[in-house]
């Protein structure tokens, strides 16, 4: 049965609120509240941690949400796998000491096979090896294909310290033709054949800062179902990017670049990156993040510049991100709980426009530096540009190393990839250390901002503050 992305979200939230007694809550912000262990919310359960641990009393023992999530750890996968974005929505139903496996499993089965009407014979599940209880419950579901259960050692879900436990994941077999062809290809294979759509976590432990596991006072349920993934199945698309939750942005970018989607793999990757990153940046800015050189602001800056780089790789020379954000915002028009995105669209575009201008400026400065360096290398009779210089171009001027490499090749020179990667690794270590410190920021209330009063703070250190508003 065809359902739009917005209809799917609504169907899930209604199923759990109206039929299974859950309190429907709006998505929480991407910025974790009182949780210094996290940079950005990456799972539906993350903002609910205090309810699992018992630190706070939940408004009801059953809650359902569609949580906006950003996983920068998946950034390299974007466009290369069918199923990963940096930004996605995680549908979830949660029990705080209320129901457990005996309800969570049958309800997931009911939603998938009766509401969304997925074919039962194509569904598979994985369980934690000693979880006989979950195996029995799965086997008693109406029409469950009895041999579609796989025991997996790594079926244990945790995200930093906090509530965690053994899990059971639901996959759909998309057919042999989508597989990698390896004789070992089976559930859990990283190729596109078996798509993980839903994870049911039987939360019973509380991981401590020292890495040990304490028992929680009561047993809980935490589930996470990727909206874009289930949409790709229901809409019969090969990737999440072709669903109505992302494709309009691809169409926009393809149109601006004058290319066609589906003709060239590398170009398709760039289009998918732009589509994903446009949604990420819009939602991050909506939640009060501004581009900067540290913490969340750096994540935003990196995503934004990465999108611009992919635009350049497609041959786009002019500014194009505001249009991409318009396309992203339109996707959510009329969807419940997305009024904030619609209302802040002008503000979001203003911030992006300023950063796009700023990057254009550093791109030119970077070009000057690079041209000078090329002269030096040539005069010295060398064949390679030092990795430290490539890193400086990347880090200080936001200069993509792929662009550096291209220009070097035009000059019959090479790039010292090893030295560059070493410098990058050192940078990562610095970033990790910085993240360990408290990087939380105060989020201004942006709902009543007058966009016309936004100006660039030229006196601020590069990257520190991109825009300020004056009253
Ligand atoms: P995968 O193994 O495919 O990377 P995961 O096991 O890391 O997924 P979970 O942490 O179990 O994912 O998150 C719960 C659900 O959220 C997944 O089953 C999937 O539907 C969805 N999801 C996770 N990561 C992404 C992503 N990067 N983009 C889109 N959906 C995602
Ligand atoms: Mg993953
Ligand atoms: Mg997985
Ligand atoms: Mg999983």
TrEMBL record:
<comment type="similarity">
    <text>Belongs to the class-II aminoacyl-tRNA synthetase family.</text>
</comment>
<protein>
    <recommendedName>
        <fullName>Alanine--tRNA ligase</fullName>
        <ecNumber>6.1.1.7</ecNumber>
    </recommendedName>
</protein>
<keyword id="KW-0820">tRNA-binding</keyword>
<keyword id="KW-0067">ATP-binding</keyword>
<keyword id="KW-0547">Nucleotide-binding</keyword>
<dbReference type="GO" id="GO:0004813">
    <property type="term" value="F:alanine-tRNA ligase activity"/>
</dbReference>
<dbReference type="GO" id="GO:0008270">
    <property type="term" value="F:zinc ion binding"/>
</dbReference>
<keyword id="KW-0030">Aminoacyl-tRNA synthetase</keyword>
<keyword id="KW-0694">RNA-binding</keyword>
<keyword id="KW-0175">Coiled coil</keyword>
<keyword id="KW-0648">Protein biosynthesis</keyword>
<dbReference type="GO" id="GO:0005829">
    <property type="term" value="C:cytosol"/>
</dbReference>
<dbReference type="GO" id="GO:0140096">
    <property type="term" value="F:catalytic activity, acting on a protein"/>
</dbReference>
<dbReference type="GO" id="GO:0002161">
    <property type="term" value="F:aminoacyl-tRNA deacylase activity"/>
</dbReference>
<dbReference type="GO" id="GO:0016740">
    <property type="term" value="F:transferase activity"/>
</dbReference>
<keyword id="KW-0963">Cytoplasm</keyword>
<keyword id="KW-0479">Metal-binding</keyword>
<dbReference type="GO" id="GO:0000049">
    <property type="term" value="F:tRNA binding"/>
</dbReference>
<keyword id="KW-0436">Ligase</keyword>
<feature type="domain" description="Alanyl-transfer RNA synthetases family profile">
    <location>
        <begin position="3"/>
        <end position="471"/>
    </location>
</feature>
<keyword id="KW-0862">Zinc</keyword>
<dbReference type="GO" id="GO:0006419">
    <property type="term" value="P:alanyl-tRNA aminoacylation"/>
</dbReference>
<comment type="function">
    <text>Catalyzes the attachment of alanine to tRNA(Ala) in a two-step reaction: alanine is first activated by ATP to form Ala-AMP and then transferred to the acceptor end of tRNA(Ala). Also edits incorrectly charged Ser-tRNA(Ala) and Gly-tRNA(Ala) via its editing domain.</text>
</comment>
<dbReference type="GO" id="GO:0005524">
    <property type="term" value="F:ATP binding"/>
</dbReference>
């Amino acid at each position: 049965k065809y359902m739009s992305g917005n209809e799917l979200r609504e169907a899930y939230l209604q199923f759990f609120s109206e039929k299974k007694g859950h309190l429907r809550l709006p998505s929480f912000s991407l910025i974790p509240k009182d949780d210094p262990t996290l940079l950005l919310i990456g799972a539906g359960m993350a903002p609910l941690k205090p309810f699992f641990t018992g630190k706070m009393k939940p408004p009801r023992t059953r809650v359902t949400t569609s949580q906006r999530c950003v996983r920068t750890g998946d950034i390299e996968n974007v466009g290369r796998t069918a199923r990963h974005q940096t930004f996605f929505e995680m549908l979830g139903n949660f029990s705080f000491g209320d129901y457990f496996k005996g309800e969570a499993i049958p309800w997931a089965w009911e939603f998938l096979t009766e509401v969304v009407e997925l074919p039962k014979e194509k569904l598979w599940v994985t369980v934690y090896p000693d979880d006989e209880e979950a195996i029995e419950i799965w086997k008693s579901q109406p029409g469950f294909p009895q041999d579609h259960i796989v025991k997996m050692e790594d079926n244990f879900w945790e995200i930093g310290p906090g509530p965690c436990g053994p899990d059971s994941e639901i996959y759909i077999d998309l057919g042999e033709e989508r597989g990698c062809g390896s004789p070992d290809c089976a559930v859990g294979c990283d190729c596109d054949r078996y798509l993980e759509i839903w994870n049911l976590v039987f939360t019973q432990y509380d991981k401590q800062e020292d890495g040990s596991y304490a028992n929680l006072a009561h047993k809980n349920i935490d589930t996470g179902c990727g909206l874009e993934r289930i949409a790709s199945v229901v809409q019969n698309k090969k990737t999440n990017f072709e669903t109505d939750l992302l494709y309009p942005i691809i169409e926009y970018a393809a149109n601006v670049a004058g290319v066609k989607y589906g003709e060239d793999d590398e170009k398709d990757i760039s289009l998918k990156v732009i589509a994903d990153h446009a949604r990420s940046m819009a939602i991050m800015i909506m939640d009060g993040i501004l581009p900067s050189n540290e913490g969340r602001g750096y994540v935003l800056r990196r995503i934004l510049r990465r999108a611009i780089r992919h635009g350049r790789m497609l041959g786009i020379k002019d500014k194009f991100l505001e249009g991409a954000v318009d396309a992203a915002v339109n996707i959510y028009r009329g969807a419940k709980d997305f009024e904030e995105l619609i209302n802040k669209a002008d503000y979001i575009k203003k911030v992006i426009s300023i950063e796009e201008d700023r990057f254009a400026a550093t791109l030119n400065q970077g070009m000057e530096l690079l041209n000078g360096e090329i002269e030096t290398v040539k005069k010295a009779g060398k064949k390679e540009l030092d990795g430290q210089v490539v890193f400086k171009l990347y880090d200080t001027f936001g200069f993509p190393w792929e662009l550096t490499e291209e220009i070097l090749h035009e000059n019959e020179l090479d790039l010292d990839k090893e030295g560059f990667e070493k410098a990058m690794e050192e940078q990562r270590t610095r970033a990790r250390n910085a993240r360990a410190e408290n990087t939380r920021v105060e989020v201004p209330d942006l709902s009543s901002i007058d966009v016309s009063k936004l100006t660039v703070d030229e006196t601020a250190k590069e990257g520190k503050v991109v825009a300020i508003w004056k009253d």
